[in-house]
Amino acid sequence: MREESLNQLEGFTYRARDMINDDSFIEVSTQAERSSLEEKANAASEWLYGDGADASREELKSKLKEMKDIVGPIEKRKEEASQRPAKILSMKESLESTMAFIESMKSQIKAAEEMSSSTASESSSTSTAEPSSNTSNDFEGLEDEETTSTTTTTTSSQAPFSTPAMPQYKQEDLDEVVAIYETINAWFVAKLAEQEALPPTADPVLLVEEIHARSQELTTASMNVIMKAMKIPERERAQWGDYGSGGSSSSSSKKSKTKTASSKTKKAKATKRKSSKGPKMTEVDLGDGNKKTMFEMNADMTEEEIAAALEAQFGAEDFTGKTGEKETEKEKEHKIDEL
Question: Which of 2, 90, 167, 196 has the fewest CB atoms within 10 Å, i.e. the most exposed one?
Answer without folding.
Answer: 196
